[in-house]
Design a protein that fits this description.
Number of helices: 9
Shape: globular
Strand order of the largest sheet: 3-2-1-4-5-6-7-8
Order of helices and strands: HHHEHEHEHEHEEHHEE
Distance between the termini: 40 Å
Radius of gyration: 17 Å
Mean pLDDT: 92
Structural class: alpha/beta
Number of strands: 8
Strand content: 15-25%
Largest sheet: 8 strands, mixed
Length: about 240
């Protein structure tokens, strides 16, 4: 549905986003027509999903095998105490619909394997890896290259994190971080995670998604963003 004089409701809903010069009406239309797959629905993935839903992404795919635990709530803000034990994907599905009923959602409540990825990625324009372990990030990087999809990979630990965006013809994740299981990329599956670090990392991943879809700005391609909110350290490295 294009943004024109007859489409006033959408114009009002996304008015502040359309007013961003780098997006405008044409960018908003591209967002509306896009499909984004999010692997992992914890602190990063749930935040990315909600931000993209708010932005008006046409279709969002969400993948996670896990259930909500009370220990998640310190950084996974879209779940409730009363929902402990429920599947994250099912709960996040409801949160997205409550925010934006127009968004089409595909939900996959399972552990996504490399074999699954080949079929899944084909239906999406952009892949967001929000998992908490380097092995999954390697999988996303590998399959996104083979299927010619662009992906954004993020990780957090403590007050810090790292984000990079891989175009299909770029070197892959393990080319940067090696083949050992812990890579060099921060896993939040071990150690502590501060909520603000997860929110910051997810926001950068969302921004990368919107920039890719609209053609706005510069992507973190061939680059690695490292941040530490505890030390107010922010650095983009050429890789």
């Amino acid at each position: 549905m294009p943004f024109n004089e007859d489409n006033k409701e959408l114009g009002v809903r996304y008015a502040r986003q359309i007013a961003v010069e780098a997006i405008g009406k044409s960018g908003q239309q591209k967002i509306r027509e896009a499909a984004v797959l999010i692997i992992g629905c914890g602190a990063l993935g749930s935040m990315v999903a909600m931000q993209l839903a708010g932005a008006g992404i046409g279709k969002i795919g969400i993948c996670d095998f896990d259930t909500i635990d009370i220990s998640n709530l310190q950084r996974q803000f879209f779940f409730k105490e009363t929902e402990a034990g429920q599947k994250k994907v099912e709960t996040l599905y409801s949160r997205i619909k409550e925010l934006n009923s127009e968004v089409k959602i595909e939900s996959f409540s399972k552990l996504i394997t490399e074999k699954d990825c080949y079929g899944l990625f084909e239906s999406y324009d952009f892949i967001v890896d929000a998992t908490d372990n380097p092995e999954s990030k390697k999988m996303t990087g590998k399959v996104s290259g083979i299927t010619k999809k662009t992906c954004c990979i993020g990780g957090v630990r403590d007050f810090g994190g790292q984000i990079m965006t891989l175009m299909p013809d770029d070197r892959r994740f393990e080319d940067y971080f090696g083949i050992v299981s812990d890579g060099g990329f921060m896993p939040c599956s071990i150690g502590g995670v501060a909520g603000p670090a997860a929110a910051f990392c997810a926001s950068v991943q969302t921004a990368e998604t919107i920039k890719y879809l609209t053609g706005a700005g510069k992507l973190l391609t061939g680059k690695l963003l490292i941040f530490d909110l505890l030390k107010n350290y922010f650095k983009v490295f050429e890789v």
